[in-house]
Specification:
By secondary structure, the protein is mainly alpha-helical. It has 24 helices and no strands.
Length: 532
């Protein structure tokens, strides 16, 4: 092992820990609002940093580079098309959420369809976090660290055992941070790491190109641009993990769900000072998503020219980093990956506690007791987060057995939870009389039917297209039920805004610039230019 890499890693982690402590030294988690919502005090930079780095985690760093290496740049669509979805959320959903003063997205469903639907969706969220989000983040972090530091060789253990050990170490550290720091600590560390990701995103491709060009960055760039040009194509063919047509069907729906409904993401924005800061923060995150391919895709693209084959393609990013980066930089990038794993893990744990306490436990206890002490709710939230953490650490190692690529597995499993929830949210937004019965029937139909298409019947249709088809069918079913059994009284929003809801005046100008940049990214990585 290169001890300079270890020293560099510890140095940068130490800086992050000290900066977070200094920023949060007066932070007190004595209320649910401070633990879950950072007292609704986040500025636009903290909102943008929290959104960006909660999203860019080890699962995306490891998974997208794996697909860039094994296929092409079409996988970058997950991040780049997020810009459109985020801007739609900023313009239409966030103003509504902040007017309602909600703390969780199931709060909206409770107001729209009733408490039963809100509880049901909260349970679905929690299942998603326990079996997919948190385990995938821990697993990808363990894969990355074993590739960077070769722990299996140091510990003299087999790969499977090493992954178990690393998962439990990372899970324990992440759990402690989430319990002690709350949402504000997560947002602060996310922002600090967000600054680091831009620097890291520039550094690794530079060193990789220099290595490929035998000391010349320009020669390395020439090799990438003129050899294996099919890997430069972002316009996915039907045989690719992301066919281009899916950008206009299921991928748009998944991104709208993720940025507008996913609790651990939306919670970062709901904690903003006001609507203006939330919209500015989303714009900052959009800019970050446009730059993120430097870290998420380009290293895998360069690795095509360095590694002719790889036993486990999921290790392509850490293997490339340890091969081409100087020890000091390798340690720095390792610190970024470590932080990326923990921030998403922490955000998922914090949101799990939020959902359980506010949407399940507190309403249940209020039926039995007239008054519940807030400190008891905080204690219950922390106990629940520990249970969720332990469950995720037990499940995570078994992801090693999935087929068709780690990142594709994550997205397919997400399909059981994301678009079904977005569908009933969408129908709640656009209708006033569709009842709770329609939401429950719609959720059940969508999840069961999607499960059949993925686990029982092979329709030879891409899972993103299936999600779009089921979205249309489920909306139709809910609309028919709404016509047959409408709500006696139309739903009316009850305003309860906790912050100023005046919008950001210049948002449309910046939104237009961001959308143009998004389109130009696809044109650049297409047969029109680089993949010619």
């Amino acid at each position: 092992m290169n001890w300079l890499v270890i020293a560099s890693f510890l140095f940068f982690i130490g800086i992050l820990a000290f900066a977070s402590w200094y920023k949060l030294r007066r932070n007190r988690l004595n209320t649910l609002n401070s633990l879950f919502m950072a007292d609704r005090s986040l500025s636009f930079l903290l909102v943008g940093g929290g959104l960006l780095f909660t999203n860019i985690n080890t699962a995306t760093i490891i998974g997208e580079n794996e697909l860039s290496y094994t296929h092409n740049m079409s996988v970058m669509a997950w991040g780049i098309t997020s810009v459109l979805a985020m801007l739609l959320v900023s313009e239409f959903l966030m103003p509504m959420y902040l007017r309602l003063g909600i703390a969780t997205t199931p709060d909206y469903l409770t107001a729209r369809y009733g408490r039963g639907t809100g509880k049901l969706v909260s349970v679905i969220f929690l299942i998603s976090y326990i079996i997919n989000l948190l385990p995938s983040v821990l697993y990808s972090g363990a894969v990355a660290f074993n590739g960077l530091f070769h722990f299996s060789e140091i510990l003299k253990t087999d790969y499977w055992t090493t992954i178990w050990i690393l998962i439990w170490v990372m899970g324990t550290i992440g759990c402690l941070y989430a319990l002690l720091g709350g949402l504000k600590a997560i947002a602060v560390s996310d922002t600090l790491l967000g600054l680091g990701i831009f620097a890291g995103g520039l550094l690794l491709p530079v060193f990789a190109l220099r290595y490929l060009g035998h000391g010349s960055i320009l020669q390395g760039l020439h090799t990438v641009l003129n050899t294996h040009k099919e890997h430069l194509n972002s316009i996915g063919a039907p045989s690719d993990p992301i066919p281009f047509g899916t950008l206009f069907t299921g991928m748009l729906l998944v991104n709208l769900y993720y940025w507008g409904t996913e609790q651990y993401i939306v919670q970062q924005v709901l904690a903003s000072k006001d609507l203006k800061n939330s919209q500015k923060g989303i714009a900052v995150a959009c800019l970050g998503k446009l730059i993120s391919p430097l870290l998420l895709n380009v290293p895998g693209l360069i690795a095509v020219h360095i590694f002719t084959s790889m036993h486990n393609p999921a290790e392509v990013f850490p293997k490339l980093d340890s091969l081409v980066s100087p020890p000091f930089i390798a340690g720095y990038i390792a610190a970024i990956i470590f932080g990326a794993a923990l921030t998403t893990f922490n955000a998922g744990l914090n949101s799990s506690g939020t959902l359980f306490v506010l949407n399940i436990y507190k309403p249940w206890r209020e039926k039995k007791l007239k008054q519940i002490l807030e400190k008891d709710l905080i204690r219950t939230a922390k106990k629940f987060e520990i249970i969720v953490c332990l469950a995720a650490m037990f499940i995570a190692p078994f992801i090693i057995f999935v087929k068709n690529g780690f990142y594709t597995y994550v997205q397919i499993v997400n399909g059981f939870f994301n678009v079904p929830i977005f569908t009933i949210m969408f129908m709640g937004f656009v209708t006033k009389r569709v009842p709770a019965l329609a939401a429950k029937v719609g959720l059940t139909f969508f999840i069961v039917t999607y499960g059949l298409t993925q686990l029982v019947f092979d329709l030879h249709i891409h899972f993103l297209h299936i999600l779009a088809i089921l979205f249309v069918v489920t909306c139709s079913i809910m609309f028919v039920i709404g016509k047959l059994y409408p709500m006696p009284v139309p739903y009316q929003q009850k305003l309860n805004n906790q912050v100023n809801i005046e919008p950001w005046k210049n948002r449309h100008i910046y939104s237009g610039i961001l959308l143009v940049l998004m389109i130009l990214m696809f044109i650049l990585f297409s047969p029109l230019i680089l993949a010619k």
